[in-house]
Each structure stands twice: as C-alpha cells, then as structure tokens.
C-alpha cells in the first residue's frame, strides 16, 4: 500500500456514461493485483475529507487506469479534472481475486455495471481464457466487451430491455450455459456487480459446491481498515458469524463466507 500523488495523463468519455481516467502512478501500478482498488482524493473537493474507492481497471507501465461513472457530488467534481492535474491515491488496497485456478476448471466472470472494469485484470492475468457474462439495463450499460474479446474470452451479454444480447438478467445466458454449454466442466466464478447479482451467483455456486469469488461494494470511509464503515457479515467455519472489513479483508470474499441476509439489508 502506498500514498502517491499521481498525475492525470488522460481523462475522457468512455461511452455508456463512464469516464476513463489514466494516472501516472509508478509506485502503485507495479503492485496491483486483480480486484484491488485505489482510494482517491477528488481534486478541487477541498470541503470533503473522504476519499472515493475505485477498482483498478488496468495497471501497466507505471500507469493506473480507472473507469468510473459520475453518480454523485464527488464523481461529478472528479469528472472535471484535467490532464496534468495531481490526484492523491492510496493503493493498491484490499484483497483481490485469487488467481490459483485449480486444473480443469473453467473461469467464468460475471459482471454488472463497473464490474467489467474490476474483472478485466482477472481475465488478463489468468493462465487460461474463459467466459464472461455481463448484464445491464440496456445496450449503453454494457462496458468493455471488446477488451475481453481481444484477450480471447467468450462474452455473453444480457440486457433487461433486449437492446443488446439476450433479453433478461445476466442469469439467462449464464443458466443456459450451465445447463447446456458447460459439458461437465466445473466453473470457477469471479463476480462484481450489484449485491442482488452477487447473491444469485453465490446461490448457483453453493447449489453445486462450486467456488464463487464475489467482490462486494460497500460505502467506505477510510479505505484502510480503521473506521469500520465498510463491514460485511461473514459466516465462521463453526456456523457462528463475524464482521469483516471489505476494504481490508475484502472486497473479494468466497460466497460460502457471506451472510447474505445481512448483506441484503445493507444493500
Ligand atoms: C471497492 C469499490 C470499488 C469501486 N469501483 C468503482 C469503479 O471502478 N467505477 C465506478 O464507477 N464506481 C466504483 N465504485 C463506486 C464509487 O466508489 C462510488 O460511485 C463513488 O464513491 C460515489 O461518490 P460520489 O461522491 O460521486 O457519490 P455520493 O455523492 O457519495 O453518492 C451519490 C450516490 O452514489 C451512491 N454511492 C456512494 N458510494 C457508493 C458505493 N461505494 N457503492 C454504491 N453506491 C454508492 C450513494 O448512495 C448515492 O446514491 C466502487 C466502490 C467500491 C466500494
Ligand atoms: S472503510 Fe474504514 S474500515 Fe473499511
């Protein structure tokens, strides 16, 4: 983990309401593991002491790239930042996705919203290509398909209005593949998206005793394990439960660990 003043190299529209932000961050970039995030202090937002967490989309050659959507005050102010401007980052933070894919398993990524950005480095760093299932409300919500296809991954798209891919939730093409395309192979899930989607993927995995690595999204204060804003309720091995900090022990947890009733209440 590093505190680094990065410099904006590029900041532009990426489509689908997202902005792409490339930052020169030579200390943080080489340390990044898939699924980790940076905690960013929004420039020109002096009134706010809180940083904002963003998944690391790409990290190469001393450059960290983020993909984000302006959803509130902080991200709206961030969207006006310009090339050359300094941006304070803490990162890389959190425990990302494990890359020790057991032999014979098929990696299956499942994404909603910015989940495609959070999962890109998984696809990049896993030794074998697999499948990506991505869902959204309509065509403009579907991000990064070409980035995954360029890595040789097979991408399946679902939109609620049917404007791209199959109509319905991401579980429509996923369930079709699990029923007919899997050909007896065991999937290993890696997912990032809304809690409702993560819970469904966790249920699919639990029903067959498969593993599902889920990146949860919690509001964060400090980002470094000190404030307890981001806690998630986990099941202990003996059936009791405990709190874990998603910024420190997460944001990625295996689905068997997560106590979903509580996660749902907090979503
Ligand atoms: C580990 C992690 C990784 C993330 N990665 C990305 C990413 O790669 N790209 C991206 O676009 N966003 C990402 N987010 C979400 C991003 O941090 C929030 O959108 C951002 O903090 C909102 O800041 P704001 O000041 O604009 O919004 P605020 O004014 O604080 O809030 C505006 C709206 O956004 C909601 N909101 C605020 N924080 C979050 C949050 N953490 N999750 C969900 N809703 C929130 C609020 O409830 C409110 O409705 C990530 C969040 C986490 C926890
Ligand atoms: S955000 Fe402070 S403990 Fe996780």
Write the layout of secondary structure elements.
Blueprint: E1 2-15, E2 18-24, E3 37-40, E4 52-55, E5 58-60, E6 63-69, H1 73-78, E7 86-93, E8 105-112, H2 115-125, E9 131-136, H3 145-150, E10 154-159, E11 166-167, H4 171-181, E12 186-192, H5 195-208, E13 211-215, E14 231-235, E15 241-245, E16 252-254, H6 260-266
Parallel strand pairs: 8-9, 8-12, 9-10, 10-11, 12-13
Antiparallel strand pairs: 1-2, 1-7, 2-6, 3-4, 3-7, 5-6, 13-16, 14-15
The chain binds flavin-adenine dinucleotide (FAD) and FE2/S2 (inorganic) cluster.
Residues 37, 52-55, 66-69, 71-75, 114, 117-118, 217-220, 251 line the site of flavin-adenine dinucleotide (FAD).
CATH level 3 topology of the largest domain: Rossmann fold
Radius of gyration: 18 Å
Count of strand segments: 16
- Reading off the top of the CATH hierarchy, the class of the largest domain is best stated as Alpha Beta
- Reported CATH architecture of the largest domain: 3-Layer(aba) Sandwich
What does this 3D model show about the protein?
With 267 residues, this protein is of the alpha/beta class. It folds into 2 domains: 2-93, Elongation Factor Tu (Ef-tu), domain 3 (Beta Barrel), CATH 2.40.30; 105-217, Nucleotide-binding domain of ferredoxin-NADP reductase (FNR) module (Rossmann fold), CATH 3.40.50. Helix content is 21%, strand content 35%. The protein has 6 helices and 16 strands. Strands 4-3-7-1-2-6-5 form a 7-stranded antiparallel β-sheet. The longest helix is centred in the last third of the chain and has 14 residues, at 195-208. It is globular, with a radius of gyration of 18 Å. The model has no long low-confidence stretch (mean pLDDT 93). The chain binds flavin-adenine dinucleotide and FE2/S2 (inorganic) cluster.
